[in-house]
Amino acid sequence: MTSTDLEPDARDLLATAAGPTDLDLTRLHARLERAAEDAGVLDVAYRTLDSPVGALLLAATERGLVRVAFAAEDHEAVLASIAARISPRILRAPGRLDAVARQLGEYFEGRRHTFDLPLDLSLSTGFRRAVLAQLREIEYGHTASYAAIAMAAGSPRAVRAVGSACATNPLPVVVPCHRVVRSDGTIGQYLGGTDAKRALLRLESAA
Amino acid sequence: MSTSSSGSGYAPAALRTRTSRSARPGRLHNVTVHEPFELVVARHGGTVLRVCRAVLGPVDADDAWSATFLSALVAYPQLAPGANVEAWLVTIAHRKAIDHARATSRRAVPVDVLPEPSASPGADERDLDLWTALAALPTKQRKVVAYHHLGGLPYAEVADLLGGTAVAARRAGADGIAALRRTYGVTASPSTPRREP
What is the pTM of this model? Predict the structure, then answer.
């Protein structure tokens, strides 16, 4: 419904009621974030975070961090996908992501080597989820090959499947798929781009 | 703030979900899914606030806006795909305005001093003139102007909310606009430069 079908005179008259300002709506949005959180109906809260590897989208359910996305993944598309797969009850509500943003900030400054955050792995299932569990075992500053992860996940021949598990990791950086490299020593693909992967490995080797 | 009341319960039949019969399994790629609620707030938050201000005045409008969007957030996943989201929100806002007015009258205490109108950030004098002019209208005229002219709800649906016929709603709206033009529009001729939305 648009107001184009309204009487032009009335539209001119009411258009002078320049309505709510951005300030009004920002204040009301913050109030809605709190009310939704208190009422337990904020299924997904998100915010963005500027980082050395570009703007990161951070999204969390009530269970924990559910998605980290690079700008290359298209944040709007990622949110639309979360709406379809988890719930459309989604608000930009930075409060729930305070700890995530703080720990990521410390990580990018080289002051944090492990994340201490509740994670919601519901966007990953089956073998891919088993791979994520193995990725979390690779320590800061170390790397492992796709083949070694396949072996550790109990399917030594599933090297390609490990690659696709890394490529669809819903929690990059926090679940360190960037620490998985090819057996020949080359860096391999990365869902945030190979530059981002190289930057993360350089950061960790400098610390 | 009550969250048990579902916003979808306020929607006219035409806005309600037609159940999931049309969503056959195996057609996943064609299923319409709801966009993130954040986009609903971004797209319609301003309109709903103007409607709430027209019905309740600038001060009480905040409470009605907040109750409207919280209620809408709760009911959102059940909203029919393709439904007119703005009309749905305006309908919820109407119910929340009634709830708010009822609660206010229950605890009403006479006061000597009215709240400062300027307590509403962003409302300049011209706006206050309009809200004052709106407040002076008979209730039905004011609500028709709020829901139809500000909220974009068709007269038929305005009539569903307020009772009476669409024709009567149209007449009340026309009378309301005419009255506004007399009291407020004097300084608001179409040639007056106005702020862009």
Answer: 0.81
Q: Does B35 touch chain A (CB under 8 A)?
A: yes
Rounded distance, CA A152 to CA A111, Å? 29
Rounded Cα distance between A46 and B39, Å, is 13
Q: Does A36 touch chain B (CB under 8 A)?
A: yes
Residue of B180, B36, B86 whose CA lies nearest to A13: B180
* B105 φ, ψ (degrees, to nearest 5): -70, -30
ipTM: 0.91
Domain boundaries, chain B: 10-187
Burial class (CB in 10 A: 0-12, 13-18, 19+), A6: middle
Going by pLDDT thresholds of 50, 70 and 90, the confidence category of residue B5 is very low
Q: Which of A14, A31, A87 to mutate to test the interface with B (most CBs of B within 10 A)?
A: A14
pLDDT value at residue B117: 47
Tell me the domain boundaries of chain A: 23-108, 126-206
Q: What is the CATH number of domain A126-206?
A: 1.10.10.10
Mutate to test the interface with A, among B33, B62, B73, B158 (most CBs of A within 10 A): B73
A41: nearest CB among B73, B190, B195 = B73
Task: Answer whether A39 sits within 8 Å of B70, measured CB to CB.
Answer: yes
The answer to whether residue A10 neighbours chain B at the CB level (below 8 Å) is: yes
Is A32 part of the contact surface with chain B (CB cutoff 8 Å)? yes
User: Which CATH number, 3.10.290, 3.40.50, 3.30.160, 2.40.10, labels domain A23-108?
Assistant: 3.30.160
The two beta strands, A180-181 and A144-145, are parallel
Which tokens in the block code for residue A182?
Answer: 């090819």
The pLDDT tens digits of the residues spanning A159-200 come to 999 999 999 999 999 999 999 999 888 888 898 999 999 999
Confidence at B79, pLDDT banded by 50, 70, 90: very high
Does the annotation mark A177 as catalytic? yes
Chain A hits for B153, CB-CB cut-off 8 Å, are 1
**pLDDT score, position B14:** 40
Q: Looking at chain B, which residue has its C-alpha nearest residue A2?
A: B152
pLDDT for position B133: 87
